[in-house]
Design a protein that fits this description.
The chain is built from twelve helices and seven strands. By secondary structure, the protein is α/β, with parallel strands linked by helices. The chain has a five-stranded mixed beta sheet. A two-stranded antiparallel ribbon has the order 6-7.
Length: 311
Amino acid sequence: MANIICGVDVSLKTLDGRIGRSGPEVSVRRDPEGIATLARFCAEHGVGLVVMEATGGYEKLPFGLLWAAGVPCAIANARSVRRFAEAMGVLEKTDRLDAGIIADYARAKGLVGQEPESQAQERLRGLVTRLRQLTELKVAQSNQRRLVQEPQVVACFDELLALIGRQSRALELKIAELLGADPLWRALDAALREIKGVAGRTVARLMAEMPEIGTVSNKAVAKLAGLAPIARDSGQRQGKRPIRGGRAHVRSILVVVAGVVARHDPDLAAFYQRLTLAGKPKMAVRVAVARKLLVRLNAKARDARAAFVPA
């Protein structure tokens, strides 16, 4: 872990950096010149790691430029940082205080530098995200259209749905081209789709939003997706084990796809039936089947990575 950590509070226009909760601080604009100043500040003070919160995209520019300047960076969960501050008795909230709390949180958590995504990975994530948004929009607009009788309004819905369809097909083609252009992605795509019921959209979602698949343990990948049960035991009491956190978009598609795969896979079908006959709640059964599917996908990806030979 880096000895000297600089926490950075990110906003639309400024970056406020601070080493520890009471160390040297700096405030710069969130633009290339300001980020260069922040990089020099880090070099002057021997900073080994810069940590900033995820702020809906505002952190991407400083994250990328700081790494390019040779300053390792990491992204922290904003909710976790806030709860850490409250646990430390810090109820006040200012940019300078937040920067110091981020640094303290990173040290307590043992955060390390997270390499920035490649351009191809970033592009894939953007395309898959937009395709997901269009799919959600199509469902919403289709549901609204069913309740409308006025011909002009119906025509308006139809025009919009046709546009969504054209854009979705174009995105699917671009995603397929991107996956096909990378030899490793091609190998992973072929391996994951060996499981009947796993289609191209599922593979693209996994490649975009869970690039770690095949590189981590089964327990770790289930936790990343938010499909790992969380213990709620105390003393002699054994509470229910809910799921929580993780990558919601990956979890949601796996829950749906697991139901499709179970229709074709005897093992998953038997597992589903066994849990159902045991009286488990429907959602608990679907989550358990999704977790079992993810473990199988992780194993497929691990084998594909092990067998992959770069050109």
